[in-house]
């Protein structure tokens, strides 16, 4: 077998493009067909797209007359969803990658038991509301989403129907092993892909006999009463609720009822993934020793004509799945239909399918007449002259397996065209950044990177000021030490991302440099987010444990069972529940002081927050030194903002999985607000779109720490859905003015200066990785691995290795002979969460392991 792998590795480069050709035939793509998302400037074959006369090749046209609102992070978004669910009278339709029945939409759970989502949906069903939910049916060998539990837990009333889709074979490994067997039966030297069984080619691409192995339903959508829509990056599941200051500590020794993240909602995907039901007892994250991982995300609420487009998309999906697997089952399952009087322009049939393509819509007509999307370079024209509110167009990625329709990749088309026609800057915030500038970057196909490189080169050649700012995670949210064998997937994604950005010969920065740009960083820069906190495992906890006679952890487990925060139907199995005596919890709470202590210090890195040097600690200095922790702040947003005028936001990541249309299913919207505000661009007066610039400014201020801490118990206007209140933003404040012009020297110094300072502090205090001084595995060992071991790896380390000196994410003490006070002085320099992305990290090694088991069988999964 090793000889076979060696031969396959040597031959794979010769036949990989033939594989791609055969895969295209399997997918039903005609020879010579070009795609605007994979070949810049060339449109798709007319048979490939339905609704191809619409802008971006979407099934839906642009529409005007909308109201829309941003909800930054899970706290405000989930509160808004809870308001809509509580008031629902007719229907609730939900699309989700993962939906956790035990999720609390308002916190703390102890004071908001009626706002657990399964209880809210049941209450709606009992009012006569019809609830229809579609969730992704996971590959059980790969993911622990437990969609079967979600279906069973929610379908407790005949008015609630849950579809799981798609179906899978028990294990993708089975099909992969078949492909290896097929390959072994051929001579690679004289290999003819035409002879390779169709099943083998399909397995390579993720599908076999109409069974989808690797691709997922990734949309996040909630439609209430056909009037208000919620969509974006946030699933209604564990790990997503968070506030703007992102506390990563959740130990509450003075009052267990202050717990915000019960059960496995206290999660750090870099340490442990959400655990399998059968093994939950062994793998819980100890919140007295480790932090959670903060979750930075964005969703929206909106009203207006596009809601009917979203409804049509949902009805298409629902009826496709119904016909495929549910029409002979429980009578609760029925097909859906649109209401004829509500269908805009007669654009859809009642079953959600398109009547035909259309060029209706004032904004669209304006663009058609102008012959441009954004107007002429350097001017303010072309952004939509219609004054009928916000223009929104629904775009999506879907195909036969996901929606029963011809392949559509209008999200990718929108990204490319918006980038190409941008005049001043683009801001990208995304969970992934995997893209290509050249066909040489196979297997990556999407050419968003080529559009970025082309726009930068054009700006340089024309002597224009132009800027690209990208925020993305430092490390994908997968558990384990990067050096471990089972971290191959994590390293593969990171290598693809670095090859998209700055390595491999065809990356964006290399393409730009090869075109004569002296320093690509003058035009494009990449950033991550990171934060710190302090675990409140102090003297109060020890004293309360002694007085009560029970441990904090045993009392905490009963608390979590009382609020019902179990996973997959299982909790801590303490038997505790509301309305009975719960000894451990009751004893601890009687002895606890019930005071508000500093259970988190997250506000200390906000501009107007207290200094960490002034926060008291009710314990020894040594214990406080051990209590500081750090983690990357995970960016899950899927956002592009161009010129403070156009926004693309939804569920789609910047990678092939989300952009190609044939892989994961996605939705997004292109937003153009005709209401403008006075602003500045490159020192000149500028009319910015109100929605786009307020969203961009709020995000920048959050990353820089220039916001107030969010109080999860006191909702403001931004917690309400759009049909209640618009966004509340403090126009003209000092912090607003500081971020209005992305070209001003003051902003540039502020943004880059804070990123640099924060990076230096986290590197010194915690030896945070990735880091620019870690160029190879020897550097990794010296800077990081000799100090730390991830809890998820502690049982797999080699026996002859020295034990880790510190717990994962904690302070490297030998850097601070002055003890905890010296650490706090250093941490007091941190403002906001912005850090530099280390583009030199591991650039001296082949970061992802080579071999057929990675390259040929699974590479498309990671892109």
Automatic annotation (TrEMBL):
Question: Is Transcription there in the keyword field?
Answer: no
Family recorded in the similarity comment:
Belongs to the phospholipase D family.
Pfam families, per this entry?
PLDc_2
From which domain of life does this come? Answer: Eukaryota
- Single Gene Ontology BP term? phosphatidic acid biosynthetic process
GO-annotated molecular function: phospholipase D activity
Known catalytic reactions? a 1,2-diacyl-sn-glycero-3-phosphocholine + H2O = a 1,2-diacyl-sn-glycero-3-phosphate + choline + H(+)
Q: Which residues form the PLD phosphodiesterase domain?
A: 213-240, 631-658
First-tier enzyme category under EC: hydrolase
Record's protein name = Phospholipase
Q: Please tell me whether the keyword Lyase is annotated for this protein.
A: no
Q: What is its EC number?
A: 3.1.4.4
Please provide the record's keywords in A-Z order.
Hydrolase, Lipid degradation, Lipid metabolism, Repeat
